[in-house]
Design goal:
The protein is α/β, with parallel strands linked by helices and 157 residues long. 47% of the residues lie in helices and 22% in strands.
Length: 157
């Protein structure tokens, strides 16, 4: 079975949420319907991450054919996860702790985790509305490594 991996990155705060969500829903529909198996990689570090995870869950429920998995990739073991593991496992299909970022300095751990997610991805979906910050740096990293990048903030419907 051919796996297609998609990672999601965005700013901590999202502007034009309804518009971004519509664009994301169309993209998810196309991915789920056209790909044999889709692995969705998400973080949990800001508004876009939560918006993406929620949209993925809705799309899988609506169009899913058992051909997806929603994976939360944590940069290191977080107390919130450790204390609420069952609730996380009931929401996400899998929870991973990125080995490389768990050994990095905590101030760089999220960026290290993001780069590991990009390396695994066939497609990087982002919501970049400002030319600064970690999500912007991750998009630049993905482009530099010739990954296919879709910025929901720039797309036409």
């Amino acid at each position: 079975m051919e796996m297609y991996t998609v990672s999601f990155f965005g700013h901590r705060e999202v502007e034009r949420t309804a518009e971004i969500e519509r664009r994301l829903e169309k993209l998810l529909h196309d991915l789920i319907m056209q790909k044999q198996y889709v692995e969705f990689l998400v973080g949990r570090d800001g508004e876009f991450d939560l918006l993406a995870a929620s949209a993925i869950r809705r799309a899988v429920k609506q169009y899913g054919c058992g051909n997806t998995s929603l994976i939360l990739v944590l940069p290191y073991m977080k107390a919130e996860y450790r204390d609420n593991e069952q609730s996380y496992l009931s929401y996400y299909d899998e929870v991973e702790i990125c080995a490389e970022s768990s050994e990095a300095h905590y101030k760089s751990a999220i960026q290290v985790r993001n780069r590991c997610m990009v390396a695994r991805s066939d497609l990087v979906v982002c919501c970049i509305q400002h030319k600064s910050g970690g999500a912007y740096k991750t998009m630049q990293y993905a482009e530099k490594h010739r990954k296919k990048v879709r910025n929901l903030a720039d797309m036409q419907l």
